[in-house]
Amino acid sequence: MLSGTLGTVFSASWLSSLLKALSALSGAEAEPLDEPAVLRLVELARSGDRAARQRLYRHHVDRVFRTVRGLLRSDAEAEDVTQDAMLIALTSLKRYSPRSGTPFAAWLTAIAVNTARRRFRRRRPEITATGELPDVPAAETDPGDDIDSAKQRAALLRAVAELEPREREIVSLRYGAELTAAEIAAQFRMKPANVRKILERARNRLGERVDAIMKSTGVSA
């Protein structure tokens, strides 16, 4: 359980770890790949290599889910958008053009954010239920810790949903997609310093909101 006040200890690493904990589509993080290896897979997939296409999917699907989860209302909706975005990306690889300083993940998560935006604009009233993700095998933990973590994640998602749309997207790209400030700045056509300022302001706001939400539910932060 966290100690102290979330408004004062709400760090970038804590936010990132909570968003990572949301990612359970495949049960575990994919093996790390450096950018040259990713680009080799892209070239193979372009030429029709199904194994390369599947590996690209496995390597990026959790990152895409983390990116869009904070932009949508439920796990189920985020899973749908993740699958849509991955399908769009993997069938559009011929249009991808590598650029210096811009990783494949930045191109992919831009597609994911745009897919989430379209879903947000045409969101149907009946999509209200919160979906459940598959159970993920884990090491033995204290059940109380699991409950606390679940409450913290729920509070975080509620707080993220209250951010302004641009702030929400920037936070999701930084801590969900793990893009750098420079990579995010390129997508939004702004200076990296401005992205960092937005992130700092959003972290402070999220910390205060999560703290308030946790206290309102009777959980000490």
Give the arrangement of secondary structure elements:
Blueprint: H1 6-9, H2 12-21, H3 35-46, H4 50-69, H5 75-90, H6 104-121, H7 143-161, H8 165-176, H9 181-188, H10 192-216
Helix pairs in contact: 2-7, 3-4, 4-5, 4-6, 4-8, 5-6, 7-10, 8-10, 9-10
Describe the 3D structure.
The chain is mostly helical and 221 residues long. 65% of the residues lie in helices and 0% in strands. The protein has 10 helices and no strands. Helix 7 (143-161) crosses helix 10. The longest helix is centred in the last third of the chain and has 25 residues, at 192-216. The model is unreliable at 1-9, 24-28 and 124-146 (pLDDT under 50).
Percentage beta strand: under 5%
Helix content: 55-70%
End-to-end gap: 7 Å
Extended strand count: 0
Number of helices: 10
Estimate the mean pLDDT confidence.
79
SSE run: HHHHHHHHHH
The gyration radius over C-alpha positions equals 18 Å
Query: What characterizes the major β-sheet?
Result: none
Shape: globular
Low-confidence stretches: 1-9, 24-28, 124-146
The oligomeric state is single chain
SSE class:
mainly alpha
